[in-house]
Design goal:
Blueprint (H helix, E strand, L loop, with lengths): L1 E9 L11 E2 L15 H5 L4 E9 L5 E10 L5 H8 L7 E3 L2 E3 L1 E13 L1 H10 L5 H15 L3 H9 L6 H18 L2 H14 L4 H22 L1
Antiparallel strand pairs: 1-2, 1-7, 3-4, 3-7, 5-6
Helix pairs in contact: 4-5, 5-6, 6-7, 7-8
């Protein structure tokens, strides 16, 4: 049996839709060493999760890491905090200056999986193509700096090579279109992402909710 830890981002929880996507998704951090599964917890077959809140300094280093929630208590917290303290994130640039990014949140799910299942789960939700990863980083940097036009232009050039990457990019495009006020294109891309059934669980759930809101908005406008 192998131990699998699944980190899921919840970025900038008070900001626009693309910035709040769960991401899931560890590809946006420059360096993401994974938490170690506590030996005693693994031996006892224990699973759980830890939610952390933290800031990112001007150099992309996490600081002020604190535990928001964990289950079970006092089992996985130290492993999660230790791992996050070693992560490195893209800088946020405002007016040509790097600034602190406050109140970021992340959830680490600690799950035990059979080796075959672990391999499938891990490979399905990782983007390895460095060109695509770099393009996604650029897209998010533009969004962070409220340059949606450039974010959309960059996202359109992304070239996914796997079904998961395609679903991931479709979701990004859908969220940017939603932020830009283009409801129909947002619905089209988010529908494609959801129908693939390849997104991480939290991303799938979040996207379904966003689709419902957008479809309701579209319906009201057409009346």
């Amino acid at each position: 049996m192998k131990y699998l830890v699944l980190p899921l981002f919840i970025l900038l929880s008070s900001c626009s839709s693309l910035k709040t996507m769960v991401t899931t998704e560890q590809e946006y951090s420059v360096n993401t060493p994974q938490p170690e599964y506590p030996v005693e917890a693994a031996q006892k077959g224990m699973e759980g999760y830890v939610k952390l809140r933290f800031d990112i300094d001007e150099h992309g280093q996490p600081l002020q890491i604190r535990v928001l929630e964990s289950s079970p208590a006092n089992i996985f917290e130290q492993s999660a905090v230790t791992a996050l303290s070693k992560w490195h994130f893209p800088k946020k640039i405002v007016n040509n200056l790097a600034v602190i990014q406050q109140n970021q949140t992340i959830k680490f799910d600690f799950e035990l999986r059979d080796s075959s299942k672990s391999k499938i789960r891990k490979n399905d939700h990782i983007i390895k193509d460095p060109v695509l990863v770099e393009g996604i980083k650029k897209t998010f940097n533009f969004v962070t700096n409220n340059n949606l036009e450039q974010a959309l232009s960059t996202a359109r050039t992304l070239k996914p090579t796997t079904p998961y990457e395609q679903a991931f990019v479709d979701r990004i495009l859908g969220l940017i279109y939603a932020d830009s006020g283009d409801t129909q294109n947002a619905i089209n891309y988010l529908t494609k992402a959801v129908e693939s059934q390849l997104l991480a669980k939290d991303s799938q759930t979040d996207t379904i909710k966003r689709l419902a809101v957008l479809k309701s908005k579209s319906s009201n406008l057409s009346q």
